[in-house]
Design a protein that fits this description.
85 residues, alpha+beta, 2,3-Dihydroxybiphenyl 1,2-Dioxygenase, domain 1, 4-stranded mixed beta sheet, 4 strands, globular
Length: 85
């Protein structure tokens, strides 16, 4: 079985309509802890849009790049392993 290297892209339709066209929306699963990645991205110029993180550690954070394109930062594998899910 041949496995591709690099990022995996998953395309999904959502029920909400978009008022302004977004070229692409990425959901990132970092190799570091989610909170570390959010801080790193904010330091590189991203802006915080919406917080969907929950007290139990689940959820995600929505950020935007300098052009306003939104993207999500999901829990990393180590975040998920630490929660047992």
């Amino acid at each position: 079985m041949l496995l591709a290297e690099g990022p995996v892209l998953y395309f999904n339709q959502v029920p909400e309509s978009k008022k302004i066209k977004n070229r692409i929306h990425l959901c990132l699963r970092p190799e570091t802890l989610r909170e570390q990645e959010v801080e790193r991205l904010l330091g590189l110029g991203a802006t915080f849009v919406t917080d969907h993180r929950n007290p139990d550690g689940s959820g995600w954070a929505v950020l935007a790049d300098p052009e306003g394109n939104e993207f999500c930062v999901l829990r990393s594998e180590s975040d998920r392993a630490g929660m047992g899910s």
